[in-house]
Amino acid sequence: xxxxxxxxxxxxxxxxxxxxxxxxxxxxxxxxxxxxxxxxxxxxxxxxxxxxxxxxxxxxxxxxxxxxxx
Amino acid sequence: xxxxxxxxxxxxxxxxxxxxxxxxxxxxxxxxxxxxxxxxxxxxxxxxxxxxxxxxxxxxxxxxxxxxxxxxxxxxxxxxxxxxxxxxxxxxxxxxxxxxxxxxxxxxxxxxxxxxxxxxxxxxxxxxxxxxxxxxxxxxxxxxxxxxxxxxxxxxxxxxxxxxxxxxxxxxxxxxxxxxxxxxxxxxxxxxxxxxxxxxxxxxxxxxxxxxxxxxxxxxxxxxxxxxxxxxxxxxxxxxxxxxxxxxxxxxxxxxxxxxxxxxxxxxxxxxxxxxxxxxxxxxxxxxxxxxxxxxxxxxxxxxxxxxxxxxxxxxxxxxxxxxxxxxxxxxxxxxxxxxxxxxxxxxxxxxxxxxxxxxxxxxxxxxxxxxxxxxxxxxxxxxxxxxxxxxxxxxxxxxxxxxxxxxxxxxxxxxxxxxxxxxxxxxxxxxxxxxxxxxxxxxxxxxxxxxxxxxxxxxxxxxxxxxxxxxxxxxxxxxxxxxxxxxxxxxxxxxxxxxxxxxxxxxxxxxxxxxxxxxxxxxxxxxxxxxxxxxxxxxxxxxxxxxxxxxxxxxxxxxxxxxxxxxxxxxxxxxxxxxxxxxxxxxxxxxxxxxxxxxxxxxxxxxxxxxx
Lengths: 70, 613
Ligand SMILES: [Zn+2]
Known about the structure:
The structure holds 2 protein chains of 2 kinds.
Chain A: E1 5-6, H1 14-18, E2 26-28, E3 33-35, E4 42-43, H2 45-55
Antiparallel strand pairs in A: 1-2, 2-3, 3-4
Chain B: E1 4-11, H1 20-23, H2 35-54, E2 60-63, H3 71-84, E3 87-90, H4 98-104, H5 116-134, E4 140-142, H6 148-157, E5 163-167, H7 173-178, E6 216-219, H8 240-245, H9 257-268, E7 276-282, H10 298-317, E8 322-324, H11 326-336, E9 343-348, E10 357-363, E11 366-371, E12 377-382, E13 408-409, E14 426-433, E15 436-439, E16 447-452, E17 455-460, E18 463-467, E19 470-481, E20 486-496, E21 503-511, E22 526-531, E23 534-539, E24 546-550, E25 554-559, E26 564-570, E27 576-580, E28 589-597, E29 602-611
Helix pairs in contact in B: 2-3, 5-6
C-alpha cells in the first residue's frame, strides 16, 4: 500500500462542504478513489464532481442576475 | 459625496503566498525559499496589476516584508507608481520569508498575534526597510486584523500612515470551523464598511477627535452581509476566487452572476448612507495559483479575476465608480464623514432564494443587526459604547481572540429557537391575549429605510397577529438616533378586530456576553429594576430569580467582564419593568418592560448602551 497524495485540483470533501467544512481530500492510488480524513466519504473523480453539483442546490439564486435590491 | 461608489483595489507581491506552500508544495519538505515559488508569486502579482490597468483602474500595491528583499518586485512597484499612479504601501501580511524566519525564529505570520514587544520590533523593521528602499514612509498599511495597540504604535511612530486594512468582516469562529479548526482569524464583531477606529478598540469607531486613532480603516473585502453571518466568510465576498471557493458558479459555463449581484448590492447601499457606497477587492496571490485551487483550474481562477476586474472597469467607464488608492480614500472619507455618522445597510438575500431581509447599523456606540424575517428582532448586538480595551497577541489574555464581544448573537446563543429548555439571545416582543402568546420573532416581514435628520428609521410592514378570537395589526418602527447610544422600538397597534380588547405587550431582551459559541461565567453581573421610587437588584448566581416593579421604567444589567451597562427603559408611567436571572442550563439574563394596550395605542421603549467602569 503506497501513501496517498493530494489530487490534481485539491478536491474538497463534498459531504464536509455540505456542513461548511473545507477539507482537501487525499487520493488513494491503489483504490483509485478520493477519501476524506474527517468523515467517511470516498469516491472517484466522477462522483466528487457529481456531488459538487448537488452542493449548489443550496444556492437557489446562484445563476440569477439581480437588479432590484429594494 | 453624493453618488460616489468608491473602490479600493489592492495587490500584494507575496513571495510565499499563504496557501501555496501548503497546497502546491504537498509532498515536498517545507522550503519557503524555493525558486519556483518566488517566480510564480511574482508572475501572479504582475498578472493582477496588468489586469487592473487594462481596465483603467489604479491600485494600491501593498509591499510585503519579503518583497522588500526582491529587486524585481521593488522595480515593478516603482514603475507602476510612475505610470499608473498606483500607491506604494506596506502590508503587514506576507511576513514569512527566509530573512524573517532567521531573524525572529518563529513561523508566526499574523501581526496581531505577536507580543507587543515583537509587534513594535517587526513594525520598525518592516517600516525601516521600506524607507530604506523607497525613501519615504508609507501612507497605508494593513493586515487581516490590526489591534488598537498596534495601530496606535504605528500612528505614533509613523504619522504618515492614514489608512489601513484592519479587519475581515465576521471572520471568526465560522471561518475557524470551515478551516477544520486550523485558521485562527478570530475577529467577529466589526464594521463591514470603512470606519475610523477608536484608539481603544479597532472594531469600535471613534466618537470624537479624542478617540480618533488617526487612521481610516477599511475591511478586507466587501462581504455578503447575510451569507457571511452564518457561513464561511471566505465564500461570499468581492473576491472572485472566494466565489469559486463557495462553488457559486456554473461548473459548465463558468458563469458567476452572484459576484456582480454582490457588487451591485453594495452600490445600492448609497441609498442609506447619503449617497456613498464602497467596495474593496484584495486578492492574495495564493488564490491565483497555477496549480488551480478549490477544484478550479488556473484558467477559471484567471477568468474570474479578469471578469471581476472588468466589471469594475466598466462601471468606471460609465461614471458609476471612482477608483482610489487607499491614501486617496482616507482623504475622501475624512472629508465627507462625521464621527457619529452611522453606516447603514438594509440588505437582502441575493444567493439562497429566500425572501429574508436584514438591517445592519454601526456607529461609535454599537453594531446592531435587525432581522425582518423575525419581525424586526434585534439578533446581534455589540456594545461599542464600552470601547473595550481588549489587547491581543502573545502575553495578553487573548492570544488569538480579537472579536468584539456581543450581548446578543443569535447563531452562537440560539436566538428565538432553543432545544426545549432555556432561552437564546434576542431582543423582541411578545403579545399576549387571554392566555395566548405570540412572539414577533414568528411574524415575517420587510422594512423600508427612512432618514429624518439625524434619525435613521426602519419602518416595518405591519404584521397581523391572530389569536383565537382577536386579530391585532401591529407595526414596528425602530429608530437609531445619531450619537444617542440607544435604539428606540415603537409598537403601534394599528387595528384590532375587537376595538375594545386589551392586549399585553412584553418588550424583552435576553442577553449574555461572549465572543464564541461557548458560554462565559455570568457571575459578577448585576441586574437592577427601578422606577416609581423603588429599585431592586439581583447579583447573578444562576438561581433563576426574578424581580419586578409595577410602574417601573427601567430594567438594566451591568456586565463588568465587558465593562458594559445595558438597559431597557420607557417613558410610560404605567408599565411593569422586570429582570430575570438565568440558570446554569440557560446562562442568560432577561430585561423587560410590559404594558397593557388598547387599539391605536403605542408602546415605546429604548435599549441603551453605556460604558460601565
Ligand atoms: Zn468529509
